[in-house]
Specification:
By secondary structure, this protein is of the alpha+beta class. It has six helices and 32 strands.
């Protein structure tokens, strides 16, 4: 048996793990043939808006819990009837999280067995609301502490990878954000809604594309304060945005989309959903024609969209979705057949993937998502937003058009124009495997947001 505490602090998902293994079973409480459950592990996952305390038992059964709050000093108390503490668990765990000071563990009583977890609050801010919920792992009970007010924004952490500056902002991946660029002087700013600065921050950098980063509180709508982070650049740069666990990362520099991606973590959010992926064109139909300026020997639209389609299919399968591709290889399928396939399956979503082109090479560039039926408009918007953030392409917006595939599909359907194949800059992106993977993940993210509108809400409420 082992008692361990894991604390995720801001920055990277770095684990400060204390694991102690004991050789004998001590204090296994036996009362008239009834064995108490043993709490063996407590994980703390601090976040700017929500801190999660995960409590694990040895027998992989979830705990019952009662809770209340006390003043002087302010604290939250969670009691676990029928539970004892692994003797190797520390009695106090310091916590770096908004409004929290420390977590204490104790055996409130032995007969009956009641283990107690106390959350000491800082008292400087409003106390969090809390909820007890079942965790995803066996024997995992979650204590969710939510800040009633805005999230607390900690200073960012910056590193340079392959000439690209990665600015990691801890714990804010879930906040509403708006990111924009300005040219004179060149800078990028990100506004995070419902966030306040933990402390003033300003830092200059001698190396890399970023000259200075600073954070400022925007003139407040007191209901929804906005924290702004400004990246002053030495010269104009592309940027992409992505989440790494709870953290938000702004990647700034030449070709940030070409950066290697973190391992994809599937979490079964699309279990059982029927998704049809339609890589456009195929066979004799190469897609955007060479006369529009694509090099005559390729790359061809039909091949690029098939590659993105395969990547999306792989991600979807990892999420538990039932995936059908209208074509798996270089064959031609009629437009009516493609829509009929989605209709026959009563697909939860149809995603047709294409590359755009225009009459004159190198005049247009960027990404857009098309929908036909009104019920697919929100779907298109969600996917477009994710694509722009992930790819750093020009935002050509969401458009209404009656392309045959999405017009004939009865369920939700969109047509993604990933980038312009007859624009040199866009084409250099389209052929890059990391760009293709980012496009697939962005489509997946938008699709997941569309299909999982319901927020989680397990457990009893306090
Ligand atoms: Zn096409």
């Amino acid at each position: 048996m082992s008692g361990s505490v894991t604390v995720w602090r801001g920055r990277r998902p770095r684990l400060a793990t204390v694991v102690v293994v004991c050789s004998v079973l001590v204090f296994a409480v036996q009362t008239a043939g009834w064995a108490a459950r043993v709490i063996t592990r407590v994980d703390i996952r601090p976040g700017a808006a929500e801190t999660v305390i995960a409590v694990f038992t040895a027998d992989e059964q979830r705990l019952e819990a009662t809770s209340f709050s006390l003043q002087d000093p302010p604290r939250l108390v969670f009691d676990f009837p029928g539970a004892t503490l692994d003797p190797d668990l520390p009695l106090e765990i310091p916590v770096v999280a908004p409004a929290l000071r420390a977590i204490r563990l104790g055996q409130f009583s032995m007969e009956p067995a009641i283990a107690r977890l106390v959350v000491d609050l800082s008292g400087q801010r409003l106390p969090p609301s809390w909820e007890i919920a079942a965790g995803a792992e066996p024997g995992e009970t979650l204590l969710l502490l939510r800040q009633p007010g805005p999230a607390l924004l900690a200073p960012p952490n910056t590193e340079i990878v392959h000439g690209v500056s990665l600015v990691r902002i801890p714990g804010v991946a879930q906040l509403r954000r708006s990111i924009a660029t300005l040219t004179d002087p060149p800078r990028i700013y990100a506004d995070l809604t419902d966030a306040v600065l933990q402390e003033d921050y300003r830092e200059e950098f001698s190396a890399g594309v970023i000259r200075e980063i600073r954070m400022a509180q925007q003139p407040a709508d007191p209901e929804h304060p906005i924290a702004r982070i400004v990246l002053e650049l030495r010269e104009e740069q592309a940027h992409i945005v992505f989440a790494d666990g709870p953290d938000l990362i702004l990647a700034v520099g030449p070709q940030p989309w070409a950066l290697p991606l973190p391992e994809y973590q599937a979490d079964s959010r699309l279990e059982g959903k029927r998704i049809v992926i339609d890589p456009g064109h195929g066979g004799h139909d190469i897609g955007a024609p060479a006369k529009f300026g694509s090099p005559p020997g390729g790359p061809f639209e039909k091949d690029l969209v098939l590659e993105i389609g395969h990547r999306l299919a792989k991600l979807l399968k990892a999420e538990g979705a039932q995936v059908t591709m209208t074509r798996e290889d270089d064959t031609y399928i009629g437009l009516t057949e493609r829509a009929a396939l989605a209709n026959h399956q009563k697909a939860h979503a149809l995603i047709s993937i294409h590359c755009n082109s225009c009459d004159t090479p190198n005049t247009l560039q960027g990404t857009s998502v098309y929908y036909d039926h009104q019920h697919s408009r929100g779907f298109a918007q969600l996917v477009q937003r994710e694509l722009i953030a992930a790819l750093a392409t020009d935002d050509k917006g969401v458009r209404n058009a009656n392309f045959a595939v999405i017009r004939r599909a009865k369920g939700p359907g969109i047509l993604v124009e990933t980038a312009y194949i007859n624009h040199d800059g866009d084409r250099a992106r389209l052929v890059h495997p990391n760009f293709q993977e980012r496009a697939a993940r962005a489509i997946l993210q938008g699709l997941t947001s569309f299909l999982s509108a319901e927020p989680h809400g397990a457990g009893s409420h306090q």
